[in-house]
Write a structure and sequence with these properties.
heterodimer, A: 263 residues, mainly beta, 16 strands, B: 118 residues, six-stranded antiparallel beta sheet
């Protein structure tokens, strides 16, 4: 599987980042201004325009290698949307995308930190640690940041983790009775193409969680709620057959890349 | 369905544009005289709404609304910020929506809406 490269700092894009959403409607307009419309559901596209500056030679080479591998617009690759949450169903933990341990009870509709009722209470009815996680079909060696708001009784603890089959990082967090956003930057070694993020509750524990988010970057940004569509695009392509690079100085390059994917 | 508002309750930011469109058929005769008649019973309104500095959450709400409408296909109500009147039958004019992330937490986009003839 081919992957769109990350920059050395672990980011996938630089500001300004342009993202376009595209649909198509067949229209027939009559002279009196009335319109007949048919939605074309086959055309649902997203496009990103990435303007990169200050790239090192190795960063540039990685991008150019991918461009050669895909032969411009012909081949596809996996693209992690720098604008989006990589999780699907970020507020619906009962969905199948979330893998739950058997003794973990979910109570939805709990008050969230923003006054809504989209948080979920996780109650561990078992005698051992129980967890909930989501697996992402994304490169295990990329830089990620997992973040989530957690609330629980004073002194209670939860464990946030990111792991592949052979490597992992975890953070044990003490709760204070108030909502707190916790984050866990994850950068693993190895070449696995599946990475899981989740949290574990101690035996008998009960915590409330909201806003599960994973981003392909080093730090957490503003929370983005997702439903069935997350930020992992497995069939992305370059938008052009030409890749142009500007050498701005020694070991300093700039380029503009268009990436398109069906949404 | 109603077009979403920003956190402040505003429909858009400056500079935003509204235009009114008539449709007139003009027949010009050999002697230079003209006959004109209207093709549409009433004028239709267009709005180009500017969102020069919105938060990520606001930008996502607009993008989600665009996706829910399937671009120009769907219809919704829009409260005209110029006169406060709600136009019940409106739609997007474009099939593409562009969002620019200028820095952390700051996005820029624009949308074009039109009033539909019932």
């Amino acid at each position: 599987m081919r992957y769109f490269p990350q920059l050395a700092g672990g980011a996938s894009g630089q500001f300004p980042l342009v993202r376009k959403t595209r649909r198509r409607t067949a229209r027939c307009e009559q002279t009196d201004g009335r319109e007949w419309k048919i939605a074309d559901n086959g055309i649902r596209e997203v496009e990103w325009v990435l303007e990169w500056k200050g790239l090192s030679r190795s960063e540039w080479s990685e991008l150019e290698s991918l461009f050669h591998e895909t032969e411009g617009r012909r081949g596809s690759f996996v693209f992690l949307d720098p604008w989006d949450n990589l999780f699907v169903w970020s507020e619906n933990l009962a969905e199948e995308a979330w893998i739950k341990d058997p003794y973990l009870a979910l109570i939805e509709g709990v008050e969230d930190p923003f006054g809504g009722t989209t948080a979920t209470r996780l109650r561990n009815d078992g005698a051992t640690t129980q967890g909930i996680e989501q697996a992402l079909a994304a490169p295990g060696w990329y830089q990620y940041c997992f973040s989530v708001w957690v609330r629980g009784g004073v002194g209670e603890e939860v464990t946030l983790y990111g792991r592949t089959g052979t490597a992992g990082e975890a953070r044990r967090v003490k709760l204070s009775g108030r909502w707190r956003r916790m984050s866990l930057p994850v950068k693993l070694s190895g070449g696995e193409e599946l990475i899981k993020f989740g949290l574990e509750v101690d035996a008998g524990g009960s915590v409330e969680v909201f806003g599960m988010q994973v981003e392909a970057q080093a730090g957490a940004s503003q929370y983005k709620s997702t439903r069935q569509r997350g930020g992992v695009y497995r069939e992305a392509r370059f938008g052009d057959d030409v890749l142009e690079v500007v050498a701005e100085g020694p070991d300093c390059f700039a380029c503009r890349v268009r990436v398109v994917a069906a949404n | 369905m109603t077009f979403p508002k920003l956190k402040t309750g505003a429909a858009s930011q400056y500079p935003s544009v509204r235009c009114v469109r008539y449709r007139t058929e003009v027949l010009r005769f050999l002697d230079g005289s003209e006959q004109r008649y209207r093709l549409m019973g009433k004028p239709l309104r267009y709005w180009r709404l500017n969102f020069a500095a919105v938060s990520e959450e606001e930008a996502r709400r607009l993008v989600n609304f665009f996706e829910l409408q399937q671009g120009g296909y769907g219809g919704f109500a829009f409260e005209d910020p110029w006169e406060g009147r709600t136009y019940e039958e409106c739609s997007m004019t474009r099939e593409e929506m562009q969002t620019v992330s200028e820095r952390e937490g700051r996005q820029r986009t624009e949308m074009e809406l039109k009033e539909n003839r019932k």
